[in-house]
Amino acid sequence: xxxxxxxxxxxxxxxxxxxxxxxxxxxxxxxxxxxxxxxxxxxxxxxxxxxxxxxxxxxxxxxxxxxxxxxxxxxxxxxxxxxxxxxxxxxxxxxxxxxxxxxxxxxxxxxxxxxxxxxxxxxxxxxxxxxxxxxxxxxxxxxxxxxxxxxxxxxxxxxxxxxxxxxxxxxxxxxxxxxxxxxxxxx
Length: 187
Hints:
With 187 residues, the chain is an alpha+beta fold. The chain folds into two domains: 2-29 and 109-185, Topoisomerase I, Chain A, domain 4, CATH 1.10.132; 37-104, Gyrase A, domain 2 (2-Layer Sandwich). Helices cover 59% and strands 14% of the residues. The protein is built from four helices and six strands; from the N terminus they run αββββαββαα. It has a four-stranded antiparallel β-sheet, covered by helices on one side. β5 (95-96) and β6 form a beta hairpin. α1 (2-29) runs antiparallel to α3, α1 runs parallel beside α4 (152-185) and α3 (110-147) runs antiparallel to α4 (152-185). The longest helix has 38 residues, at 110-147. The relative contact order is 0.18.
């Protein structure tokens, strides 16, 4: 029974960790007014008939706070990369000089900042829901074990430990959201 309890708690913790990781990835993509190569992580390029992520056909970097540079590994790929960036509908207007594509990231308006903060909070709520679902599933599993002969005090201890894990992951979500919100609202 003890191994099953430990497994249940570990599984809930893993699911909560994955929810926080997903939130981190979603927040990394959100544009906060600063040029970040991760903004182009969803861009898919037509590489000789094969759809390929941009990072596999070019070097993506940030030369300063307002510019993203894309250095294709083959000069022939400049036009397909430019089209892919436009097709990704990120609100960017890429410009090339024949060797490098430069994307200037426009500063955010106050209204756009507020919209981004709402989006950040929405992503945070999705993460919290995933964490709560993991807690609920773990508690249900503990109740099943209790029906199959697990001692009541062990069940209560396991539920308390799951609640501690849940609280720690919720705290991480709050920290991530606060950090991103400050980043977005900082002009």
